[in-house]
């Protein structure tokens, strides 16, 4: 009986941690945008600037920077929902997957996007988390994670068209390499969990 209660407490603790971290990250995104607006510092300049040595700072900073309130508003709900779903599968595992997505997405943009452009926004994480959640069940062999991946694909699969070029002012490279980072995170993080 104590084992079941401990398991329920662990699940409740994981859900609570996932919720706090997801809401906290979104609060950070809004705080950064508020500070940018109040101070008129033009923080967008610290996004990823392809093949510029100083632009490498953007690999670390770009996912928390946005090009205005509409950009941030568009990313808020997906960050909350997908960030929560990634973290509820295990906080350590979710943070490791996020780190892989963040790094692969940023470096991919830095290496391939057009020179003299600036890329920023949490959508690199959104695309990465979406792909991660859709494919991780393949690596974990978890029926629940496979079902979640199918449901997410049916609900949000059309979003993946954002990895294709075509919409002016949208970093399809960020979307593409975020998605690549999500697939790599599922292969690396979740395969390591099984070993």
Task: Provide a descriptive summary of the structure in words.
With 195 residues, the chain is mostly helical. The chain is 72% helix and 0% strand. It is built from 7 helices and no strands. It has helices spanning 2-39, 57-61, 69-88, 91-112, 123-140, 143-156, 172-194. Helix 1 (2-39) packs antiparallel against helix 3 (69-88) and helix 4 crosses helix 5 (123-140). It is globular. Mean pLDDT is 90; it is low at 1-6.
Indicate the topology.
Elements (H helix, E strand, L loop, with lengths): L1 H38 L17 H5 L7 H20 L2 H22 L10 H18 L2 H14 L15 H23 L1
Helix pairs in contact: 1-3, 3-4, 3-5, 4-5, 4-7, 5-6, 5-7
In short:
The protein is built from seven helices and no strands.
The low-confidence parts are 1-6
Amino- and carboxy-terminal Cα gap: 29 Å
What would the principal axes of the Cα set say about the shape? globular
Note the run of SSEs as H and E. Answer: HHHHHHH
- Taken as a percent bin, the fraction of beta residues is under 5%
Helix content: over 70%
**Total DSSP E strands:** 0
Taking Cα atoms only, what radius of gyration do you get, to the nearest Å? Answer: 17 Å
Average per-residue pLDDT, rounded, comes to 90
**Count of alpha and pi helical runs:** 7
**Class by helix and strand content?**
mainly alpha
Oligomer: single chain
Biggest pleated-sheet summary: none
What keyword list fits this structure?
disordered N terminus; mainly alpha; 195 residues; single chain
């Amino acid at each position: 009986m104590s084992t079941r209660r401990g398991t329920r407490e662990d699940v409740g603790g994981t859900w609570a941690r996932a919720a706090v971290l997801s809401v906290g990250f979104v609060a950070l995104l809004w705080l950064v945008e508020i500070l940018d607006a109040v101070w008129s510092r033009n923080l967008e300049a610290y996004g990823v600037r392809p093949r510029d040595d100083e632009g490498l700072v953007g690999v670390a900073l770009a996912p928390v920077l946005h090009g205005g309130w509409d950009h941030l508003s568009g990313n808020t709900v997906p960050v909350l929902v997908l960030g929560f779903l990634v973290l509820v599968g295990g906080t350590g595992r979710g943070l490791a997957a996020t780190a892989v997505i963040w790094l692969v997405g940023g470096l991919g943009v830095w290496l391939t996007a057009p020179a003299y452009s600036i890329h920023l926004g949490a959508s690199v994480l959104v695309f990465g988390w979406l792909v991660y959640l859709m494919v991780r069940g393949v690596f974990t062999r978890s029926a629940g994670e496979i079902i979640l991946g199918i449901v997410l694909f049916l609900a949000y699969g059309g979003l993946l068209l954002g990895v294709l070029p075509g919409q002016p002012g949208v970093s399809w490279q960020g979307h593409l390499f975020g998605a690549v980072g999500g697939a790599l995170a599922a292969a690396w993080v979740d395969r390591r969990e099984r070993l």
